């Protein structure tokens, strides 16, 4: 899964890496969302994901296929998040330093469901930067939770974030298998 707050770049990240034409379930932002959806960081945003985004990418020389499900960023879609999280192996949470609090709903859902995740700070032009320790504290991340940076518009950068997640999931799974054998 790819999760995070409203306007953080989930649709953009999936579009930048998908080998298939991404499925996008977007609708125009309407007056009804005024006062509900915060457009301060994204004043030119005209659409929003209302169900999910979907893409696919093969990695590790074709031996690994990632099916990417982008969750809508608004907390009012939490029932949909829970349905899409069913059976998920892990999640890349995108965060924006202009509004780190917008990540907390997704992080809470993942923690509650026991789904491992990595966090990628999407580097928007002109957004503030903070030391890693401050970011970890603001996001309440465990020390082992991977934290990386990406530009969701850039394929290589987005791939790096997904590689960070898949390496973590591989390590997480190996550790769980070792623990279960004790």
UniProtKB/TrEMBL annotation:
This is Conserved ATP/GTP-binding protein. Belongs to the GPN-loop GTPase family. It comes from Streptomyces coelicolor (strain ATCC BAA-471 / A3(2) / M145). The lineage of its organism: Bacteria, Bacillati, Actinomycetota, Actinomycetes, Kitasatosporales. Keywords: GTP-binding, Hydrolase, Nucleotide-binding. InterPro entries: Gliding_Motility_GTPase (IPR052705), Gpn (IPR004130), P-loop_NTPase (IPR027417). The gene is cvnD12. GO terms for molecular function: GTP binding; hydrolase activity. The keyword Glycoprotein does not apply. The keyword Metal-binding does not apply.
